Amino acid sequence: MALHIVEEADRCLNCKRPLCQEGCPVHTAIPQVIQMFRERRMEEAGRTLFENNPMSVVCALVCNHSAQCEGHCIRGRKGTPIHFSAIEDYISDAYLDRMGPDELPERNGRHVAVVGSGPASLTVAIQLATLGCDVTIFEQKMEIGGVLRYGIPEFRLPNSIIDRYRALLDRLGVLVRPNTTIGGALKLDDLLRDGYDGVFVGTGAWRAKTLGIKGQARGNVFFGIDYLVNPEVCEIGQDVAVIGVGNVAMDVARTAIRQGARRVTLYSNWGGVSANSDEVELAQLDGAQIVYGQSIESINDRGPVFRRSILDEEGQVIDMSDELVQVECDTVIFCVSQVPKDKLILTTQGLRGTERGTLVVDDDCMTTVEGVFAAGDVVNGPKTVVHSVEGAKRAVVGMLRYMGLDESGRPVAAQE
Question: N or C: which end of the chain has fewer CB within 10 A?
Fold first, then answer.
């Protein structure tokens, strides 16, 4: 492994205009990190990665590299792009357990509540704690991680990595309240009442989107986002039909195969897929099949009933056939996107959402309730980990400004 990434690093051209960095949503300083790695400045390389992206070790494993950093590498135009993900994984995995100050930074007197503990919330908590804020995380489930732990299969992202982030929070002095739902016994108003100077909401998108068709409430039907939380408790049988062809659908298909399903078929209602190409290839390597041009109509005891889509040359649906096709299987799993739950909107006066159920925020990521900020899937809908980090970093800047702190976490008034 180490020799492989040394060879990869040596292939870097150190471009004057690094397209790889431009292709990264959080603009990781890829050429500089590679140069530090070449010069064996490992500590500095790790610090550079994590200061820019606290989820660096996660992104190295689960990012859509072929569409981002590696997809923009100049080497890839006439050959093989540099696999920066492998270099990042090596550096960031080694640095994660050393990340954090030897001593806690000087406290700045600001107290922050973070609702949720997914990638956006962890980014905000880590960055603000590093800058001297006292941070408390409120997590609905037993363990931290959000979608990292409960939405991404462990064969892609081991839970042991999330456990190491829990240890990092301890080193930074971040308090965690598990099994605590904000919008239940405690509400956002209670957090503001109890002295938190700022509140961040990163509760993700955990409500499965339904199609409103007959049969979705049957016992042989699951929603993908719910299935991935704990696949072991779901009896899926030998033959599984997955409705949808996005990234979640690919995770569901690969998980079902590992759970013992002998045949897993994904159904697309058009002529293509919405998942990234790497995930599609891995799902097919695992044995999943994809059937195109099938629009689901209903579900019965035997399985799903489809109506064939009539497609144009580009694979887009232009009409529907009158023909119905019955598919027999043991289990049907729906993966047709997710939306945020509406608990916070229903329990917080003045908190507004969009028609999609996502929270309305301004340029500083502040919601329609003063002092309450939000980013990640609860604002954008389901996207990638690195996009959640991107939004969370903007929220940190907005929260610092709102709490009267400069970019280093020091009170602005104290400098005047």
Answer: C
